[in-house]
């Protein structure tokens, strides 16, 4: 019956945690309290178990600090249930990075649904007191920073969100699960003997009395006010702006976060690391990406000029043709001569046919090529 006690402890604290995650953990504890058994694989599937934060292999010059899973002051119960990161370990990692002469920037990679309120305010204040120095502290959302995780992220020098990332969920709540029926089914009848009724108010074996509900609501409201005030200070905006524009508990995608002032830029983790001189992508991969980007740019330019009727140079046509339809160098060169009617040389039916076919394809592709927003 140990999970009944865990559930009581879990429900006793206000949580700044994504609602779906809190519900998943609560349902898990109720299932265990009722005698249910999950394999480790099922635990991982249902509540994300096993994703414990590991020391990240930091690229040269950058301290990459993982902020994964459920967050808590010290990872005990929550670590066993769903992996996670402790505020204590994050503080130590930040201090170590700032003391390391080889580190020029700190990137907190965040993928977390949030966590417990106790400890969050202290870590947030610590990050805020350390930012603005010679070593920038960047919160990189990759791919979720909800609730307490966003609370922490908002204190960094800047927030960067991966293109598919999400963040927000500014709010606090707790749960009261009455498990008297489960206890009765298990043949357990619990009696609390306390110095005052308030000592055991809100226990899980009876409905929540009105005055106890009001007391818990007041604690939740207090935590929420602290949350909002610290996000406002961290982001350099007013409390009224956070209340009006930062979602009231909703989670937003990268573009919406940027629009609302909840993030500063959109980039992948590799792009953020590269900005601070820490290149993690192999040179061969960087070359492929650069070549493809060049081809796409040439294709876009040719498409735009064909649509608008602007003059096109031979070089622009050749490179655009290779980008749009993958033409070879010789095919692109011959097609450019035919299309622009310049320096065509001696006629060659085979070459002309291939070049004319390439022109037909490029004209069709130009019409279908997406316009730049």
UniProtKB/TrEMBL annotation:
<protein>
    <submittedName>
        <fullName>S49 family peptidase</fullName>
    </submittedName>
</protein>
<feature type="domain" description="Peptidase S49">
    <location>
        <begin position="134"/>
        <end position="276"/>
    </location>
</feature>
<comment type="similarity">
    <text>Belongs to the peptidase S49 family.</text>
</comment>
<dbReference type="InterPro" id="IPR033855">
    <property type="entry name" value="Protein_C"/>
</dbReference>
<dbReference type="InterPro" id="IPR029045">
    <property type="entry name" value="ClpP/crotonase-like_dom_sf"/>
</dbReference>
<dbReference type="InterPro" id="IPR002142">
    <property type="entry name" value="Peptidase_S49"/>
</dbReference>
<dbReference type="Pfam" id="PF01343">
    <property type="entry name" value="Peptidase_S49"/>
</dbReference>
């Amino acid at each position: 019956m140990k999970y009944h006690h865990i559930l009581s402890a879990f429900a006793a604290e206000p949580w700044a945690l994504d609602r779906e995650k809190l519900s998943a953990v609560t349902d898990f504890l109720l299932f265990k309290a009722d005698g249910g058994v999950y394999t480790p694989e099922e635990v991982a599937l249902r509540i994300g178990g096993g994703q414990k934060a590991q020391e990240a292999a930091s690229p040269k010059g950058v301290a990459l600090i993982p902020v994964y899973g459920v967050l808590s002051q010290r990872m005990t119960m929550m670590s066993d249930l769903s992996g996670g990161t402790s505020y204590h370990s994050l503080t130590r990692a930040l201090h170590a990075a700032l003391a390391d002469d080889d580190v020029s920037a700190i990137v907190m990679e965040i993928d977390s649904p949030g966590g417990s309120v106790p400890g969050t305010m202290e870590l947030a204040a610590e990050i805020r007191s350390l930012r603005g120095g010679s070593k920038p502290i960047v919160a990189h959302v990759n791919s979720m920073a909800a609730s307490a995780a966003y609370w922490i992220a908002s204190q960094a020098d800047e927030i960067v969100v991966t293109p598919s990332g999400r963040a927000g969920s500014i709010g606090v709540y707790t749960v009261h699960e009455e498990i008297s029926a489960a206890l009765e089914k298990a043949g357990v009848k619990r009696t609390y003997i306390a110095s005052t009724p308030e000592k055991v108010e809100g226990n899980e074996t009876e409905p929540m009395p009105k005055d106890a509900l009001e007391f818990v609501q007041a604690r939740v409201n207090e935590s929420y006010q602290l949350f909002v005030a610290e996000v406002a200070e961290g982001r350099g905006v007013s409390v009224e702006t956070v209340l009006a524009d930062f979602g009231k508990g909703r989670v937003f995608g990268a573009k919406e976060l940027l629009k609302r002032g909840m993030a500063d830029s959109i980039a992948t983790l590799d792009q953020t690391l590269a900005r601070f001189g820490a290149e993690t992508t192999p040179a061969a991969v960087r070359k492929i990406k650069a070549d493809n980007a060049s081809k796409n740019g040439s294709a876009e330019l040719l498409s735009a000029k064909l649509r608008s009727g602007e003059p096109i140079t031979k070089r622009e046509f050749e490179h655009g043709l290779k980008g749009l339809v993958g033409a070879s160098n010789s095919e692109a060169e011959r097609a450019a001569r035919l299309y622009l009617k310049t320096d065509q040389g001696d006629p060659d039916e085979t070459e002309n046919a291939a070049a004319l076919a390439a022109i037909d394809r490029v004209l069709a592709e130009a019409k279908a090529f997406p316009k730049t927003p």
